[in-house]
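Structure first, sequence second, as always.
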């Protein structure tokens, strides 16, 4: 994607070929800081404190975190420590474990002297693969938008939750990829952007993406989606996911389940866009088996924003004695999901649908 006319990915290597560069997303939309990551610990901090976020980008950052460790300490002890530290950063997004398992399987058999170059090469490949996966997700999701556009006048109204855009991946995004590709084809679209409390990724990030790309959109409070659906103002919901079970249950940012319930009640198609590394083939019941990250209550009781003088500051919105409870994700049962938009096509949200789309994983899912 482009920022002020300059093409960016969400993660890339600096001129020295070793420093990893990212966008500190906690500072968007009011600032656009590029941060250098030079150690594995800095990569872990970036994931934990959400300078980077979104399941695919978390995985890519973890892969580069392993590479940074190999550049500094390629020993078996260093490899084991990197896996442990990075794996502990965030519990819900399965891409984190997927990327770490991939890197460890590659690096463990190698001599320590060969590990750094191999790690950087594989991390770069993971990033390139993510871009292509998301491009293909967009191509399949585009068909849904084209079908709606062909039967109605005016824009196709799409509601999305959290940020499943290029900032959450290496490029294109998952839920936004069909939107970007529809715009490129000249299809008129309008996006309802959920604010996505408490971290406001919709308000801060998705709105920034839409505005940067010139896509018509409105920011809405999280509770407005059902109202809009009741009045026929939403044609399609597309959201992302941090982990999807082998049975098609979808774990995504808190509030996704309520949108799925509203969509189901109003006959609005509810699709989830996901790259295949986000599928956890070892998990079948999302409600009982997926760990839900509990983040600090300050994210609920305080807000970041820009004051009239242009300063970015934090304000408290609750009484001093009030503590915030902050589950970061919820699980939407497969029965509420119209379909899963993958890089191979649109699958039914079921064990059978996913197994048919990814037969090489059928045996793992059946265990």
């Amino acid at each position: 994607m482009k920022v002020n006319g300059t093409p960016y990915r969400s993660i890339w290597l600096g001129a020295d070929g070793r420093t990893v560069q990212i966008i500190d997303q906690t500072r968007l939309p009011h600032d656009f800081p590029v941060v250098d990551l030079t150690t594995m610990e800095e990569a872990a901090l970036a994931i934990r404190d959400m300078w980077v976020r979104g399941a695919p980008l978390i995985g890519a950052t973890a892969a580069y975190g392993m590479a940074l460790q190999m550049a500094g300490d390629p020993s078996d002890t260093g490899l084991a420590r990197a896996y442990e530290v990075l794996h502990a950063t965030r519990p819900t997004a399965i891409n984190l474990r997927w990327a770490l398992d991939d890197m460890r399987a590659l690096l463990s058999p190698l001599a320590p002297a060969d590990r750094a170059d191999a790690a950087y090469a594989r991390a770069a490949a993971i990033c390139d693969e993510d871009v292509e996966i998301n491009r293909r997700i967009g191509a399949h999701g585009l068909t849904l938008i084209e079908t709606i556009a062909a039967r109605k006048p005016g824009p196709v109204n799409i509601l999305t939750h959290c940020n499943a855009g290029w900032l959450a991946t290496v490029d294109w995004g998952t839920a936004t990829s069909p939107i970007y590709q529809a715009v490129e084809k000249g299809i008129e679209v309008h996006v309802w952007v959920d604010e996505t409390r408490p971290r406001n990724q919709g308000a801060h990030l998705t709105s920034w993406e839409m505005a940067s790309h010139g896509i018509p959109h409105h920011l809405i409070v999280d509770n407005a989606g059902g109202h809009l659906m009741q009045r026929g103002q939403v044609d399609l919901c597309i959201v992302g996911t941090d982990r999807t079970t082998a049975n098609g249950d979808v774990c995504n940012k808190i509030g996704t389940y309520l949108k799925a319930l509203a969509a189901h009640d109003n006959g609005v198609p509810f699709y989830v866009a996901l790259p295949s590394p986000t599928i956890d083939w070892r998990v079948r019941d999302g409600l009982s088996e997926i760990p839900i990250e509990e983040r600090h209550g300050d994210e609920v009781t305080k807000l970041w924003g820009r004051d009239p003088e242009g300063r970015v500051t934090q304000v408290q919105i609750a009484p001093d004695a009030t503590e915030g409870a902050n589950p970061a994700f919820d699980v939407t049962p497969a029965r509420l999901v119209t379909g899963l938009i993958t890089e191979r096509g649109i699958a039914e949200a079921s064990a059978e649908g996913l197994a048919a789309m990814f037969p090489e994983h059928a045996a793992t899912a059946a265990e």
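Margin note: The chain is about 40% helix and 20% strand.
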